[in-house]
Amino acid sequence: MEYLLIFGGLLVAFITLRVWFGARRAKVYAEIKKQKYNVIDPAIDKIVQTNDDRKPIG
Q1: Planar angle of CA 34, 39, 41, nearest 5 degrees
Q2: Cα separation of 18 and 54, whole Å?
Q3: How would you write the pLDDT of the chain (58 residues) with one tens digit per residue?
Q4: What is the structure's pLDDT at 32?
Q5: How many Å apart are CA 34 and CA 16, to the nearest integer?
Q6: What's the confidence (pLDDT) of residue 38?
Q7: What is the dihedral of CA 22, 23, 29, 33, to 10 degrees?
Q8: Which ranges of the chain does DSSP label H, i.e. alpha helix?
Q9: I need a surface site. Which of 7, 14, 39, 57 has the fewest CB within 10 A?
């Protein structure tokens, strides 16, 4: 019976650590992606050019 309690405790500890490290890694990944997006964002204005000389058809 004690082995079941020890195994259950180790299993809960393992799952908790795995979820915690996964969330930490996801947070770091999200920050990196946000940083890259902010770096790329000014270039989007150069790529997307609007034609102001167009007039509506109707």
Answers
A1: 90
A2: 56
A3: 899 999 999 999 999 999 999 988 888 887 777 765 545 555 555 555 566 666 667 6
A4: 78
A5: 27
A6: 46
A7: 140
A8: 2-47
A9: 57
Please write down the long-range contacts of 7-12, taking CB distance under 8 Å and 24 or more positions apart: none
Please give the structure tokens belonging to residue 56.
Answer: 């509506």
Cα-flanking dihedrals φ and ψ of residue 35, to 5°?
-65, -45
Token representation of residue 55 = 């007039």
Tell me how far apart the alpha carbons of residues 58 and 53 are, in angstroms, rounded to a whole number.
15
0.70 exceeded by the pTM? no
